[in-house]
Amino acid sequence: MSPADAGLGATVRRYLPDLVYGANDGVVTTFAVVAGVVGADLPARVILLLGFANLFADGVSMAASNVLSQRSKADGERPALRVAARNGAATFTGFVAAGVVPLLAYLVPLAPGNRFAAAAGLALATLFAVGAGRSFFAPRPWVRAGAEMLAIGAAAGAVAYGVGVLGARWLGAAGI
């Protein structure tokens, strides 16, 4: 292994928790937006509008929260702002890179009836892959690590879809 490879591995290991945290939340929250909009039977353009708004606003919020969390540690453990900002950047990068995946089904030419299934498949595959990838840097079987993230994301998507269905019915019944 070359020194450059060793340095890259060390860097990835150092920021892996931030990347995984961001990627997991990015996929889950963006897919939840997609599922909620589909559950409410709203147009696909709403998915893209809310999806991208969520992607960047929540990505910035997650990154800033990570920086503040790093800076809130006890004096002896508190990293410099520059270091904390790197953790925040890793969270943002993971969030946006993985969070855009469910929106891809609405950006490529697919039959409208296939888009949600494609978004769900892409989101769940990404969650499994990110989860399984943790096993390269943490003592955890890759199948279990992937399945954990997959289950969390699937549950969140199901909740969002259900809220979309129920919310649309309630708002329709209320005449809103």
Automatic annotation (TrEMBL):
The keyword Ribosomal protein does not apply. PANTHER family: FE(2+)/MN(2+) TRANSPORTER PCL1 (PTHR31851). It is a multi-pass membrane protein. This is VIT family protein. Its main location: membrane. It is found in: Endomembrane system. Keywords: Membrane, Transmembrane, Transmembrane helix. The chain crosses the membrane at residues 19-40, 46-68, 89-110, 116-137, 149-171.
